[in-house]
Amino acid sequence: MNLCRVFVRNMSQGKKWQPLKKVGVVGVPFEKGQKKYGVSVAPAALRSAGLLEALREIDDLDVKDYGDIDTSSPELDLHVKNMDHLSMVSNCNKRLSEQVTQVLKDDRIAVTIGGDHSIGVGTVDGHQKVNKDMILIWVDAHADINTNKTSDSGSVHGMPVALLVKEFSHYWPYLPTFEWQDLVFSIKSLGYIGLRSVDQYERLAIQKFNVPCCAMEDIDENGIKNSIQYILKTLDPTNSRPIHVSFDIDSVDALEAPSTGTAVRGGLTLREAIKMMEIIHATGRLRAIDLVEINPAIGNENDRKRTIDAGISVLKAALGFSRRGTAPRGVPDLPVQDNTTKR
Ligand SMILES: NC(=[NH2+])NCCC[C@H](N)C(=O)O
């Protein structure tokens, strides 16, 4: 083979991405972004279900636990109109952003376990400070792009995307305590997977900014592989940008992940979620992943266990676990059993 040609090809492809073999786990026991009790116990529940051990079983993966974020708030709890617990959300996200930045500077993939989805503000802010060119894949039944003027619930877990993107800055009133946030992330770097419960104004926002989006009907139509590849290619045609996945467990069908606060039926199968994560892992560009909205206080013991198992399986797939193990790809030649011979 002409080595020179190989060399030139590699050069022209630019930086060669390899999956990072080191991760840092950050827990965020925070639930003030929504109204139900229980999401804040998810980090403890995931840890006691063996999350860290499960990740450590992945070949060569170096797993460091950075512990939990302090979610307390020094000042009086502020509520801006139709926006609950503003200062608590803000303080928690400020600390989380700093921690995620630190994990990435330690050259580890930031694995954040929530907590409700309002914590996506801190994880993306922290990631963006290190990888300015990151793309964000929001995997969710909901678009979470309401402002306090369009939200029906007043819950901030339905607003993190609108808080993050710079194109929305003038849709917000002054938000006291949020001064720490670097408003630099562009909606042009955002894509959605799994949508099936999108509010009226959210739909308009997605259309106005032409956000690439694979709702459940698109996934039915095209399959999960084509869907995630479409999002990745649209956001980053040259395959050269770091990836942040913000994974809401309610993207998965309520039959497979029932313990969550705003479940919507007709979601991703667990296999689809795992397949999507395997594809993202294979890019070598995953640098941060959030797992949010597991609520162990919802449902019975079986629901709780199933939901936590689903969450752990998704993270494992994103970080390189393969059911294939080291076996060769494809269907192996199984020994043919001879049923005709009498023993
Ligand atoms: N991350 C979530 N579970 N979000 C649910 C949001 C539900 C609804 N769209 C709202 O704004 O209140």
Automatic annotation (TrEMBL):
<comment type="pathway">
    <text>Nitrogen metabolism; urea cycle; L-ornithine and urea from L-arginine: step 1/1.</text>
</comment>
<feature type="binding site">
    <location>
        <position position="142"/>
    </location>
    <ligand>
        <name>Mn(2+)</name>
    </ligand>
</feature>
<dbReference type="GO" id="GO:0006525">
    <property type="term" value="P:arginine metabolic process"/>
</dbReference>
<feature type="binding site">
    <location>
        <position position="117"/>
    </location>
    <ligand>
        <name>Mn(2+)</name>
    </ligand>
</feature>
<feature type="binding site">
    <location>
        <position position="248"/>
    </location>
    <ligand>
        <name>Mn(2+)</name>
    </ligand>
</feature>
<keyword id="KW-0479">Metal-binding</keyword>
<feature type="binding site">
    <location>
        <position position="140"/>
    </location>
    <ligand>
        <name>Mn(2+)</name>
    </ligand>
</feature>
<feature type="binding site">
    <location>
        <position position="250"/>
    </location>
    <ligand>
        <name>Mn(2+)</name>
    </ligand>
</feature>
<comment type="similarity">
    <text>Belongs to the arginase family.</text>
</comment>
<protein>
    <recommendedName>
        <fullName>Arginase</fullName>
        <ecNumber>3.5.3.1</ecNumber>
    </recommendedName>
</protein>
<dbReference type="GO" id="GO:0004053">
    <property type="term" value="F:arginase activity"/>
</dbReference>
<feature type="binding site">
    <location>
        <position position="144"/>
    </location>
    <ligand>
        <name>Mn(2+)</name>
    </ligand>
</feature>
<dbReference type="GO" id="GO:0030145">
    <property type="term" value="F:manganese ion binding"/>
</dbReference>
<dbReference type="InterPro" id="IPR006035">
    <property type="entry name" value="Ureohydrolase"/>
</dbReference>
<keyword id="KW-0835">Urea cycle</keyword>
<dbReference type="GO" id="GO:0005829">
    <property type="term" value="C:cytosol"/>
</dbReference>
<dbReference type="GO" id="GO:0000050">
    <property type="term" value="P:urea cycle"/>
</dbReference>
<dbReference type="Pfam" id="PF00491">
    <property type="entry name" value="Arginase"/>
</dbReference>
<dbReference type="GO" id="GO:0005634">
    <property type="term" value="C:nucleus"/>
</dbReference>
<dbReference type="InterPro" id="IPR014033">
    <property type="entry name" value="Arginase"/>
</dbReference>
<keyword id="KW-0378">Hydrolase</keyword>
<keyword id="KW-0056">Arginine metabolism</keyword>
<keyword id="KW-0464">Manganese</keyword>
<dbReference type="InterPro" id="IPR023696">
    <property type="entry name" value="Ureohydrolase_dom_sf"/>
</dbReference>
<dbReference type="InterPro" id="IPR020855">
    <property type="entry name" value="Ureohydrolase_Mn_BS"/>
</dbReference>
